Amino acid sequence: MNKIRDALLEVVIIILVGGLIGAVLAVVSNLFVMGVQWFGHQREASELLSVSIGGESISFSSVLFLWAAAAVVVILKTGLGIARWAGPADSMYAAHQVNEPLDIKTGLASTMAAFASASGGGSVGQYGPIVHFGATMGIWVKRFISSRLSHEIYLGCGVAAAISAGFNAPIAGVIFAHEAILRHFSVRAIAPITVASVSASALGNQWFPHTTTFQIDSVLPPLAEVVPILVALAPAFSLVAICFMWALRYSAQTAAKMNTSPIALPFIAATVCGLVGVWIPQILGLGIASINEMIAGEFTLALLVTVLIAKLLMTALCIGFGLFGGVFSPSLFIGVAAGALAGQVLVIFGFADIASIVSVAGMAAVSSAVIGAPVSAVLIILELTQSYQYAVAAMIAVMVCNLLTNRVFGNSFFDRQLLDRGIDLLKGRESIALNQQTVGPFVSQDYVRAEPTVSGAELQQEMRSRGHTEAYIIDTNGKFVGKVSIYEAIEAADSSIKDFVDTRPMTLYTHTSLAKAMAEVSDFVGESLPVVNAETGELQGSLAEGALFQAVIDVQEQARNLERT
Q: pTM for this structure?
């Protein structure tokens, strides 16, 4: 009966947690898009700062709107004391460890900054910030609910709900949370994540009825005709994705090296992007309407080339220079532009009725390579088009593109962001846990301590009575001098031990990680290692190899338990 009661209680908690997070993300995701679209309409209708050029009135309102967005971003960052904006990479890292949880204030501020940037017309996206908001919301909800569900499950619920609400794709939301963020499957995790994803989609449709974000309704030619073409185009899509991710990193690195105030950088991006947007308005904002127009084949070949290059460069500039936003939506735009461009070229060479599927495949391939979620991208296409054939065709381009991109650039843009911070998720939770945990908490006070003036005979007697074969020498100020073995004590006899001290023994520091300690002691031979405070030089204790191995085993077991829940 107790097991039945516990199971029923867990089901109730799962429904409450998943439903609550799904409902919140349904509202936030839809209001985010509606708000950005409303501001976009105001920007497009505005006649502010109009100038007559060649008898034609040109409005520079896009620059003014972007200046306002940059001002909001700067005020948020300085006023709230945000050191660095947070996105999906931080959500991924938070799901793989517990020592550095998501900061609620930074998560909320990042979402508001992204909303301001997109509303002002910045060439940024919505899905990344909403995904991180979902992860932040999940962690925040966990504070108020006591359950056996781990923190990463709450985080996964928020991520799945964000994708589900954004694309109206609940299955893709579930898979994305596991594939890109959690990176493992478990029965306990999939149930609440599914509830959150389905709730977000269902409630979003109920409260905010609207048409599908992307309009894809063309008839697909036979797969036998399409597949060889998509396989041939996949390397080109991979190249586009790599160029986009490289540009994002290069822009951020350039901004970091510039001798310019961090406050001025967003305004530089706003000015340049706004001026480009005057002549190429398609690259401003989320670009959903332009994506649909490209899929429908309404852009000319010259315009496709223009928007592809401009969108890639302006997104890199905006995000790299601090006009914060997501990269998922721009990757969709860039992928569609690359696919539509390839489709129109193929039509010129006599391949009819193929431009639409190539556009969709390009969208899926480039975006999946950027976010590192190929299966999720295919499922998004399946749920958006309700076409098995479209999904299969897109899958070919997605998988080949991801294979090439992974070999050349890495698993995703978010993985590379973490790698730039010294975090390699591909090594798994155990590696992260071992790198986070220091040796300080595991030191022992069971060691022989002596001053340099003690005689070898006295030290030998002390070591024999304590059952140790090594002793640590400490000066009168408590600083670590070195190490003496039983053999040196015997050799010193009645003489002072100071001339027999090994002043450069293998030493660990309190801040040394368990991972680094294990690497350092691989060639160690002896009883124990001294653990020293690197700042003061004082001895904090000793650490035997056995104790170090046990600490590593315990930390690894804790990391494995995260994947078993």
A: 0.87
